[in-house]
User: Fold these one by one.
Assistant:
Number 1:
Amino acid sequence: MRFLLIDRIEEIVPGTSARGWKNAAMSEDYFEWHFPERPIVPGMLVLESFAQLAGWTEAASSDFQRWFLLDHVKAARYYAFAGPGDRIDLSLEVLPCADADRRAFRGECSVRGERSAVVEFEGRVVALGDLENTERARKTYEALRGEGR
């Protein structure tokens, strides 16, 4: 994963839900071009934050044997912007899915206590070891949970 877009995982209830957040720091390079006069977090990066939280949810639910890969966005509605200094609070719910090799999610995020986006997406489940070293993924997860400090 080139860009880690989750700064903290507050809670994961395996197979059910997850909560986490992402801080938007002015030093992030996308603010330079999106937009120079009024920097905002691109909506696509908000969606990617949800997809990464879904990946961590799948990993934690499978003892780091599986990962989630987004392949279909069913809906994405944006209501407000996040900018430098904002914290994007993410809440994710696992939805029923008929295919055992797929997962579906509904996510909602807020900035400064106001709803900023609601998304629904799905994708396939793959072996985590095919993408990354599972022990390194486990240690990254522990850091994102604030464990071992």
Number 2:
Amino acid sequence: MQYKRILLKLSGESLAGEAGRGIDPACLESYARQVCEVARMGAEIGIVIGGGNIFRGLSGTRTGVDRVTGDQMGMLATVINGLALCSALEREGQPCKVMTALRVEPVGEYYARERAIEYLRSGHVVIFSGGTGNPLFTTDTAGSLRAIEINADILLKGTRVDGVYTADPEKDPTATKFERISHDEIYRLGLKVMDLTATTLCKENGLPLVVFNMDVPGNLKRVVTGENVGTVVY
């Protein structure tokens, strides 16, 4: 196994499946099975999941919701997704804890770094929900932050595409894929891999990133075992 401790970043939209909103049970089950497969190999897994399938703060401002309030609503949406994923993992027999950056006990345990690391060492998958706990930050930033805090070996971003491209491959059929790309090249080319705050956190803390297609069953295991899947950002 190439990576012992990982932070997996999932988008909320990925849980919606073809419906585009809400939580698709088939997607949830597929993700849970992939995570369990890797956990049973001995990997320590933290997960940050977005909330865009339920509510996205930026889109809320277009309907008259204040930006800060909208972001708080989005953070609560990530708690809902975290609870759903935790339940799916437990159905597969995998111990799991939901930790939140917002105080919503007893729904989730308030995040503390030392406690999170204890759970990881004891074989629990730890789902970090509530974003960073602050408005104006994305869950990509939360993923980078939590990965650094728990001393993860790698940040894995599971998406609907199989890596980083010169343009959006869903919109531009001429887009070409990068096998490896540096954080500096991402800045220079203006690629939307993650928001700039998240990218800067990774760069300044020497945290490598792999972007891969989580919708292909078995891909998570392939990445963790060192297969050439997705794009490595260094």
